[in-house]
Amino acid sequence: MAKDRYNPEATEPAEPIRFTDKRRFDPETGEPRQPAEGEATVEDREAAAADPSADPLAEAERILADAPDESHEAPHAHEEPAGEDRDHEPALEGAPEVLEDPELREVPLGEAIGGGETEPAERIQAAEQALEDSGYDREAELEDGLRRVQAEYVNYRRRVERDRSVEKERVKGQLISDLMPVLDDIAAARQAGDLEEGPFAHIAGRLEQILTHQGLTPVGEVGEEFDPNEHEAIMQQPHQEVEADRIAIVVRAGYRFNDRLLRAAQVIVSAGPE
């Protein structure tokens, strides 16, 4: 049919193409159009929309909605008679099976922790007895720990006292080192004969006495054997009264504080008689 419509050689005339203009107003004049014969008006379409019965599809949906639901009546036919044991009902497919264990029951908290038969004091006593049976001596362990703490404390006190004594000696040695120039002046004045009598001689003697009491000792005397660890030899020359390798003259005295040498003595060493 479609081929005949567009085939110019067809013997039968082609079916004309028809168009239906549904515009309510004439596009040329702008006036409302009158519906053609057999065509539904706008009022007819609005009335059909308002009346569901006029629409066949709406009428079919209404009939299906009013039909009785047979699914609500089915359970009455499958009800079991009263008195039957419901334990024999078949389990749901895929549901886990629940087993009841007579040993699984609720117990008090105290019974669950301690067994419900023994008291805490009895359990403690049993634990102590087990420790004693295993050879564990709590008192011996405490005594050993106490002796260890006492020994550590004694060692600590000894270290503190030793450090304190060392610091004390260091401070004293520093003070005496600062007084050495004063002692050199006193020795030079005495050698010149200026401290034979008078108040200054008494003050100098008193100062030397205090320093000696604190542990200061002079180093280097005439006739003493030369010691390179304590004496600093300036020169060596012959001497008629002093033997060789002994101190002939003390140029500057040295000092030792307790066991520590503060300053070596500067001396002239004798080479012996000519």
From TrEMBL:
Could you state one GO biological process linked to this protein? protein folding
Q: Does the keyword Transmembrane helix apply?
A: no
For this UniProt record, give its keywords in alphabetical order, as a comma-separated list: Chaperone, Cytoplasm, Stress response
Question: GO: which molecular function terms?
Answer: adenyl-nucleotide exchange factor activity; protein homodimerization activity; protein-folding chaperone binding; unfolded protein binding
Q: Where in the cell is it found?
A: Cytoplasm
State the InterPro entries in the record: GrpE, GrpE_CC, GrpE_head
- By its UniProt entry, which CDD domains does this protein fall under? GrpE
Question: What does the UniProt record say this protein does?
Answer: Participates actively in the response to hyperosmotic and heat shock by preventing the aggregation of stress-denatured proteins, in association with DnaK and GrpE. It is the nucleotide exchange factor for DnaK and may function as a thermosensor. Unfolded proteins bind initially to DnaJ; upon interaction with the DnaJ-bound protein, DnaK hydrolyzes its bound ATP, resulting in the formation of a stable complex. GrpE releases ADP from DnaK; ATP binding to DnaK triggers the release of the substrate protein, thus completing the reaction cycle.
Question: What name appears for this protein in its UniProt entry?
Answer: Protein GrpE
Q: Which organism is it from?
A: Nesterenkonia natronophila
The lineage is: Bacteria, Bacillati, Actinomycetota, Actinomycetes, Micrococcales
Its gene name is grpE
